[in-house]
Fold this protein.
Amino acid sequence: MLMSLKEYEASFLEYVNKMLNIEEAIGVLYWDLRTGAPKNSFKQRSNVISQLSADVFKMSISDEMAHYLITMEEAVSAGKCSVEVEKTVNYLRKQYERNTKIPVEEFEAFVKCQAISESVWAEAKEENNFAKFEPYLTEIIGYKRKFVEYLGYTTCKYDTYLDEYEPGMTVQKLDEIFSAVRNKIVPLVKAISTSGKSFEKEEMKSFVSKQKQKEICELFLTTLGYNFDAGRLDPTAHPFATSLNLGDVRVTTKYHENNFEKALFSTIHECGHALYEQNISKDLECLPIAQGASLGIHESQSLLYEKVIGQSYEFWKCNFANLKEQLNGVLDNITLDEFYKVINNSKPSFIRIEADELTYPLHVMIRYEIEKDLLDGKIQVNELPSIWNKKMEEYLGIVPATDREGVLQDVHWSMGHFGYFPTYALGAMYAAQIKATMEKELPNYNELIETNDFQTVLDWLRVNIHQYGATKKPQEILKDVTGEELNVNYYIDYLETKYSSLYELEEVNKSI
Amino acid sequence: MLMSLKEYEASFLEYVNKMLNIEEAIGVLYWDLRTGAPKNSFKQRSNVISQLSADVFKMSISDEMAHYLITMEEAVSAGKCSVEVEKTVNYLRKQYERNTKIPVEEFEAFVKCQAISESVWAEAKEENNFAKFEPYLTEIIGYKRKFVEYLGYTTCKYDTYLDEYEPGMTVQKLDEIFSAVRNKIVPLVKAISTSGKSFEKEEMKSFVSKQKQKEICELFLTTLGYNFDAGRLDPTAHPFATSLNLGDVRVTTKYHENNFEKALFSTIHECGHALYEQNISKDLECLPIAQGASLGIHESQSLLYEKVIGQSYEFWKCNFANLKEQLNGVLDNITLDEFYKVINNSKPSFIRIEADELTYPLHVMIRYEIEKDLLDGKIQVNELPSIWNKKMEEYLGIVPATDREGVLQDVHWSMGHFGYFPTYALGAMYAAQIKATMEKELPNYNELIETNDFQTVLDWLRVNIHQYGATKKPQEILKDVTGEELNVNYYIDYLETKYSSLYELEEVNKSI
């Protein structure tokens, strides 16, 4: 049977499309589980998810896929494919290699271990009992140490895992970047602590009904350009955004009746993720590259909206009066200046996900350093609580009283997600660099923010970043958009300028 | 390779389980589409549903399935299987025969025609243009006439389709039943019309916020025994209940801000469907027979809760004060007696889904008679509007001014769902017969209703009906529960007693 290249490509794309359709179904099932599926549904629903996930996994490493890849790679080399097809082939090749290098039985054993480990972690955290979690984490790390040998590495084992979340990122680069950030931020955090200033306000803990908070969140989503014809907002336990298809990118939030600020900013954060996915080019529809370039670039968009824009003075100049009105009296005794300060209050704290913009990267660095050493076997699992506390003291000047507030707080390690944490910090750095470019290319940038002209901002991000999906690597995007690869000075400048001014820290200011 | 029967059965059940898992995913996708999936998601989501549906269909007619069925049927004949496995084999055999008898290409053409026909129907209804729909309906009926030849029939073609929704039901039985009902109900409806009485009340159209209506619906769901750990309530356009797995049976409703009554009773209706599925025996979990016995038996449960219980005087004796309080003034000028009358107001109307309990079966009969004649070729599609109006005049004494309010009102025919309508009326008849038995077996039945002791009612229904799922045929259930097959006199008595008393119709009363 002779098939033309066009026909062969169509058959390949149909195969890929079938995989994506199953992934879309899985996406809906997960969204549903996290937004109110009744608890008695979980056990059987997880069977459905396992079955569909196994189906997609098998398709990703099938003989059919192997043949498609070889033939399509030839076509790509001969210059016969569009750039979208080329990138799709590359994406699937990388997935194929990753999924075939680890022996199936070992991978299945790992997946089982992951599930148990995660639930033991939840119990151990609840009970503040690190010893309970220790053997499971040891097993997980055993797998990660073994798998990296299958997957291969050049200079540094950790690079292999880093690359899964942030293609092209390396330990060498990260060590340099984090060191620069640490040197500038640790003194800044100390200076703020020493200043004794706190911007906290009782009013921020006033009761606001969930229904009212929902309305406020919807209002801000609309203001920022979120398209409700291609998404929806729902309550959940741990806020997330999820892209099911290009016409269905959902956001979630959690309402705390005595902390409207949390729901508001977590919604704006997820909005940033969602705007990215809603604005990927329709040319990439039904291809696996119709997603963000990396976790780091994704996080740059969420943090750009949440922190850089959403917690800026300019943003609230335009929106504070409206928020006040919505909140119906709650903020009547707070001025715009006070509000700006309170939402940017910085203070060393134990829990990463509750940390402010300035202290946040220090939380990430602690995890990064521990992960590297664990993988290299330089430290062992039983040492983690003491190492954790030592680093907290060193970076943030505080020591958690319990492991629950310390080494047990995050779910990631229980699932073997090593190399994930750095992307949170990279996102903040990318965001600062992208913002600096926006200010140059949109000379009236501040004015746009002050007048809620978010269509212009979104258009710029769409044209420069969003539309490309995962056709470009993270550093490629950064280079194309900002003219240089990651330059951490933008981030350091951003933080120093903002927080020195907020806390009127003249000495630190001078040192910049 | 030798496999023991135990192993073979396990392999068969695993195969069946895989089909059900995919069906569960499809169920979640449909639920999602109908409860707020963003409109831009539809196009691509329908590809996902098509793919998964095709996968299940293929599994139902695969060579593997054919082998499983033959071997398992031998095992069943040899008395080596549990009753659950036996019923599963029977269920899948019936499905296999139905799915293989129609040539695949013709079936696919029909499915395509269905999709177009449904959307043309929606437009035609909107535009009140029967001529637009006529050629599509003609095509659909062409398929149904052809398919029945493939599927086979003994005396009556319509029996074949009836059996798909209500196993064991026949035209012979229905003709008899419907004729008896018609002879009693038509005079009753006329007597009510002649009496000139109307129980309508302006207050029932007062504004009640959707949020408040939701709270009221949740309250009644809980009162009736709906388990929120195994379900949830959401708004939708056309209310339905859906069983995703035995631990996840969801209900939906529609809130009209100036008609709280609609949402309330549609919720109680769906609650009846959901209670059935929530109380199927866990022994049937992961088997295709873990569902209601038939559409008719399902409808008997929804109507039992909505009409027989939910619109009874006893029910509101206990719940009216509470509803009044919830509605915060809206019903202050209405007494319990008035409320009971207003929710049972009976009046001939054009739209089936808005019809009251008494006139409802007449709407079904009109459709039943037309469907039979269409299938037999006794009437043609172009005659439908005039035939429809003639029958409306004859049965209900009114003639719709437009086809939109007449022959175009229902979606069923556009999708080729012939034989479906009768199950709505059968449900009401089963419900009356079941209620009569409950009154005998629970001597304090009225007291239970008057005191909101729904656990006792639900336990009775669970033990007698729910737990069996689809292991029994509809008439088998009825016989086992009530001691006789469908006896329409219970239904006629129920209606005559209730409505004669409501409208104080002495003459009709005497004639009983």
